[in-house]
Amino acid sequence: MANLAEMLRESGTHSPVEIDWLHLLVVDWQVIADLSFADLVLWVERDDGFIAVAHCRPSTGTTVHQDDVIGLNLPAARVELMRRAMSSGMIQHSLEPRWTGSYAVREDLVPVVCNGTTIGVMARESNIGIARSPSRLEVNYLALADELCAMVARGEYPQTSAPTSGRGTPRVGDGIVRLDAEGSVSYASPNAMSCFHRLGVRGPIEGQFLAEAVADQLEQTSSLDESLAVVLMGRAAWRTEVEANGASLSLRSIPITEYGQRRGGAVLVRDISEIRLRERELLSKDATIREIHHRVKNNLQTVSALLRLQARRSTNPETTSALQEAQRRVAIIALVHETLSQTIDEQVDFDEMINRILTVSSDIAAPDAHVQTRFAGSFGRIPSRVASSLAVVVTELVANAVEHGLAEKGGTVTLTAHRDGESLEVTVVDDGEGVGAEGPGSGLGTQIVRTLVDADLRGSIRWDAGESGGTIVHLSAHVGS
Fold this sequence. Notes:
By secondary structure, this protein is α+β, with helices and mostly antiparallel strands. The protein has four domains: 4-154, GAF domain (Beta-Lactamase); 172-271, 2-Layer Sandwich (Beta-Lactamase); 274-344; 368-481, 2-Layer Sandwich (Heat Shock Protein 90). The chain has helices at 4-11, 16-28, 30-36, 79-88, 136-154, 190-199, 210-218, 226-232, 273-313, 317-341, 350-365, 384-406, 444-455; strands at residues 39-46, 49-56, 92-93, 98-100, 103-114, 117-127, 176-179, 185-188, 239-244, 247-258, 261-271, 347-349, 371-377, 381-383, 411-420, 423-430, 460-465, 471-478. α9 (273-313) packs antiparallel against α10 (317-341) and α10 runs antiparallel to α12 (384-406). The radius of gyration is 35 Å and the shape is elongated.
């Protein structure tokens, strides 16, 4: 099914500005649906009549339409009233209820006006077969809904500065406060009262200036933000947050206007204390994990430095070589941990590390030989759970190529990587002496590589002799997406 923009473009009767206006309405009309206890259907006119291009169900009541209505054409019996709403620019109320199945529907047709032009009709359809007691909450909800619908018909709603999304954005059911033109509370829903009580406001808030009541709770904790006062007085379509006495509230203001003059406002409020508490806990845990990574990296670097010092002091060539290999492996693991400590992602951009890995591997394996290292292709983003193993494997392969094939005369080591989804193909090619007929050998480095490839990378590895000398190592690994 085509989306709203495509359906509006197909109608060919709306300018880009009008299409943007309808988008803003659809993004923010959940408030009207919830206040009205009604379904909202947006109708636009085409050559063959009217078509439904958007639909919103209330979260505060029962829906009228169980099935999707988007894309349906308006029945002929309702076209005349719809066109009357389009031409008059005034809200049209159905004189008699419309029966849908076993229940009756009351329909109000609200012209959607943009820059003085009616560009569509918003149908407000209420199920009147469900009896509800006329409580204060319902009376105030419907009164606010009527005011917003009147603003839609005057081209004053939606409000372009309105914040309609984001974590913790309040909705009608979370709590709503109705304000008069001066910013005094004329009604507060039970949920809204509970929210402000948690903030420290005691007693009823009806008849009080909401901005003053909240400011009294902030005098000893923090300064009053200018945007907070504007929201609490219903003067601008903004969203802000307030925190006091261990409670956090998310606030959204909806100014009520009539021909450009402010007549009052509504403030949606939601208690987000638990959300903010969880976020702080996550930030604390993230900082702890970063600190652990940092300390592990420092400890590994210390171990690497101690191994390097011990290797320099050793007089036994075999001992020196073994210590240098151990120092190289620890240095690479420290490098991976350093990268992990600088990111909160569960994946590592391995291409950023590879040049440092190649340099460390060749320098430690043969510090006196003139060896060039080259890299082609891309590893992509590697899951952190296998990044260390892959780094050690690459290090061992490059170091073995340098140490056993290029240590005396120098040469070039070329590393190539190709990523295809979860599969990774790596080749390490050198122009040294080659593996010979005996194969890659059974040293500690080869054993480490085989173990990591089989256990962590879930892949395979093969050593071949190059056609013109040297060695070609083929590595296949499964690294996840």
